[in-house]
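Thread: YccA/Bax inhibitor family protein, structure

OP (GT): Posting the sequence first so everyone is looking at the same thing. Length is 273 residues per the record. Can we get the structure tokens written out before standup tomorrow? I want them in the notebook alongside the other entries.
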Amino acid sequence: MRSTSNPAFRNLPTQKQGGYATFDRSGGGMMGGGAAMAGSQSSYVDPTQATQDTGRPITVDDVVQKTAISAALALVAGTLTVLSGLYILALPAFIVGLVVSLIVIFRQKPSAVLTLLYSGSMGVALGGITGFMQMDPNLRGIGVQAVIGTAGVFFGMLVVYKTGAVRVTPRFTKWMMGALIGVVVLMLANLVASFFTEGGFGLRDGGPLAILFSIVVIGVAAFSLLLDFDAADNAVKAGVPAKYSWYLAFGLMTTIVWLYIEILRLLSYLRQD
């Protein structure tokens, strides 16, 4: 399995257990479902034996359903937080989400409870942040725009991956890893600089440079989704146990949360007086 920028996907097992519908162009597509026969007779593994050893192999539907459940939970939690006005819950919810994400990553085991806990807590955190921002008359309705933007980018990148418009090759993965590291380093440097000078390097002050930087970060987050789709696709091809669909859902949710935050930030810049 190719390496990915998402740490959650680096602990997936890689055993080969037969062919199933995948996210790629030759399979049924992420949303299509249905099984596809793959591999030669020599690589065939008795499904009964595979189930006894590691459980039912994962399918595309497993990944889609778990990701949809997680995303829906985050959306509902965020919406309720905005409507209730409990914006003060944003910080503790964010801390809970961060702790849970570290547990999932270092525990190296799939968990429906932890994935849903992460999704719910981050939904509350993002809802609190969004609600607080919308107290500014200039930012009314920014949450709905950010949700639509995030969904649009997600499905747009899914189409890009499925059609093969951009192929996830080892070279592409290396470029993405470099871009991700560069973005993180710049964020940290700007944060440190902000302690000594007002606005730091100007990457988050809402000015032209900040807008450009946000667009770049959104681009990196969007293309990171391609790596996530590829990791999920490879997991399906490898026939890893179905329980890892929760692990894949968690990995996709971390990228979706990051993407939402950056889109929300960019919209706030563009709607400033």
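GT: Both are above now. Quick notes for whoever picks this up: The chain has one domain: 57-270. Residues 15-53 have pLDDT under 50 and may be disordered.
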